[in-house]
Design a protein that fits this description.
The structure holds 2 protein chains of 2 kinds. Chain A is α+β, with helices and mostly antiparallel strands. Chain A contains 7 helices and 4 strands. In chain A, a hairpin with a 5-residue loop joins strand 2 and strand 3. The longest helix of chain B is centred in the middle third of the chain and has 27 residues.
Chain lengths: 209, 143
């Protein structure tokens, strides 16, 4: 067997094995932990439960309206004029709160969030090549309580009251976002249609977003 | 309502993602992009994976299948159906009242969703009728 074939087989086996182990860990957590405690601890670290201080009931109508209005006033200037670093920080905080509440408007998409991140980072997110954490200057010492990802590969580290403390970037994971979208919009036809075989768009519009 | 921890993607969501002309395409893309960006734990079942992969292979050939495989590798976990889950899903179908239109794939998805305590990303409102939480919210409202 050639090295290439062997590598491919190992890659397939790896994701298959991870899925099988993760299935057992999710479907029988107590049994899994009893028989494989070390692996359970490793999976706890790899797949952490969302930790945060937010209410399970979400925002009040008043809080939601305030956040949406404040966010919209900043996003309205995102492409027409300069948004300051401070405005970008506030906008990301609003996005984080609204995301946790599952009420972030769809028009605040990956592209606009990446632009906000770029303003804070001082360069486009895609230009970051090494793992890094950007600290946001704070008036008083703060503790990170909430961690929220708005774009894959970036983590917003926030205080209990959702003020941004720092942003962590993992470039390898940032690249996973466009990759995950590559199969999207492969066809203009209904997949049930019999026309247009093999009309693959290898580099679709999402690959560059 | 806070976002769910885990999300199980069903066949209707994959079909909506694949086709630009699907009525639910835009909503599917917005939802999927958010799930990917939030790094939520995404799953699908092996029967759904096989159906969608077969369809892509049939329509787009090996290159299409390669793109699909590379896209979801490390992003979407696969719940490989075992005998117990299969029996549970069959039981769900045979216990339906007459006139129930739950298919085997939907039945398997609902059983797995309960096992994983996951929301289902779907455009099929049968899951809502089974009391399973679904995404996107716009579909949830129709149930």
């Amino acid at each position: 067997m050639s090295l290439k074939k062997k590598g491919s087989k190992q890659s397939i086996n790896k994701s298959f094995i991870v899925d099988l182990i993760l299935t057992k860990y999710r479907t029988d957590p107590d049994g899994f932990r009893q028989y494989l405690p070390d692996i359970a601890k490793a999976l706890d670290r790899a797949y952490p439960t969302r930790q945060g201080s937010r209410s399970p009931f979400g925002l009040t109508e008043h809080e939601r309206a305030y956040r949406l209005s404040a966010l919209e006033s900043i996003m309205g200037n995102l492409y027409s004029s300069q948004v300051s670093r401070q405005d970008a920080v506030r906008a990301l905080e609003h996005c984080a709160v609204l995301t946790e509440d599952d009420n972030l408007p769809y028009k605040v998409d990956r592209r606009s969030i990446m632009r906000l991140l770029g303003i804070i980072l001082g360069k486009p997110l895609t230009d970051v090549t090494a793992e890094t954490t950007i600290e946001i200057p704070q008036a008083i010492p703060t503790t990170v309580v909430n961690r929220i990802a708005l774009v894959r590969g970036t983590v917003l580290n926030l205080t209990q009251d959702m003020h941004l403390v720092s942003i962590s970037v993992i470039p390898q994971k940032v690249k996973e976002g466009p990759r995950a979208m590559r199969f999207v919009a492969m066809t203009k036809d209904s997949p049930h249609s019999s026309t247009g075989p093999r009309d693959v768009c290898p580099e679709d519009k999402h690959a560059t977003s | 309502m806070p976002l769910p921890e885990r999300v199980l993607i069903d066949g209707s969501a994959f079909l909506a993602l694949l086709s630009v002309n699907d009525a639910s395409h835009d909503l599917a893309v917005q939802t999927y992009e958010r799930l990917v960006d939030r790094e939520q734990e995404l799953w699908t079942t092996s029967p759904t994976l096989v159906r969608i992969a077969s369809l892509i292979h049939e329509r787009f050939g090996v290159e299409g299948l390669r793109i699909f495989k590379d896209s979801i590798d490390g992003i979407i976990h696969v719940f490989w159906i075992d005998g117990t889950t299969y029996k549970d899903a069959l039981g769900l179908i045979t216990n339906q009242l007459s006139g129930g239109d739950l298919g085997l794939e939907e039945s398997l998805t609902s059983v797995v969703a309960k096992h994983l305590q996951a929301y289902v990303f779907t455009f099929n409102n049968c899951f809502g009728e089974l009391g399973i939480p679904i995404l996107p919210r716009e579909v949830q409202k129709l149930c």
